[in-house]
Amino acid sequence: MKHVVCVKQVPDTTEVKVDEKTGTICREGVASVLNPFDEFALNEALRVRGEGDEVIVVTMGPPQAEEALKKCLAIGADQAILLCDRAFAGADTMATSFALVKAVQKIGQVDMIFCGQETLDGGTAQVGPEIARQMGFSQVTYVEAVEQIKGKFATCRKETDDGYERIRARLPLVVACLPSPDFNPTIPSVMDIIAAKRKVMTAWTAEDIGGGAEQFGLAGSPTQVVKSYPPPKKGQGVVIQESPEDSVQRILEIISNKGFTA
Ligand SMILES: Cc1cc2nc3c(=O)[nH]c(=O)nc-3n(C[C@H](O)[C@H](O)[C@H](O)COP(=O)(O)OP(=O)(O)OC[C@H]3O[C@@H](n4cnc5c(N)ncnc54)[C@H](O)[C@@H]3O)c2cc1C
After folding, report:
1. How many domains does the chain have?
2. Which protein residues are within 6 Å of ligand 1, measured from CB?
3. N or C end: fewer C-beta atoms under 10 angstroms in the chain?
4. Which tens digits make up the pLDDT trace of 208-242?
């Protein structure tokens, strides 16, 4: 079987700063990391890999996204592909998933595509489902674990608001993975890092994966980010330390002081 894992390099921070003048994200001085959801997706792909199976990681990004791929190879992926071309710049989720689909088609005979549920920066959770739709593959989102692959079916545990569902889905399949609470990221050893240097890392351009120039990057994006801004700061909260009986009285006082009446 052939498994593709889609990974994205993201800024290593949950407090992304936005340049108020240009509305763009300030990336200077912010280190980049492998999106944690994607690291979990890679772990799932490696966990279910059978004898003779191949795990290929793919990212679309700038040249420095190579670092994220190197980490994936050190964790255990067999091969890595960097989609890197000026033509990909300014891609929205549609153009991003289109480029990834073209890469998957070029790889050929793919049985499963593992994505993260979402990224730390964009966080739209659209790319995985869009890949499934364009490939005509089945899809399961919020996947905590791929429990079994048997014949033409995979059994996935999907997180829900109330617990989980166990879903049997037909291959070929896209799963969007969500780290389970007990997930411990792999820290590659020095030997793993050295071994990764001998693995295949390929760079593909827009021309390599085919498709018209108008389908990639800004030109292929039906949506555009008009403005980015940090969410407004929340007002200071009040900690109520009274006993449970007195705290109701205290809450009523606070509400009435703000001018609300029953
Ligand atoms: C210069 C620049 C300009 C942009 N302009 C626009 C714009 O005009 N309009 C707009 O809507 N967005 C724009 N974006 C953001 C862009 O849409 C997202 O970076 C991209 O589409 C992924 O969306 P997301 O982060 O929400 O991924 P999600 O949908 O949250 O990611 C889900 C999963 O998909 C996979 N994935 C996502 N991105 C990649 C990737 N690049 N390579 C491999 N796998 C991936 C991963 O497995 C990930 O966990 C721009 C980004 C850049 C860098």
Report:
1. 1
2. 6-8, 35, 37-38, 41, 58-61, 89-93, 96, 100, 115-116, 118-119, 121-128, 221, 223-225
3. C
4. 999 888 999 999 999 988 877 777 878 888 888 88
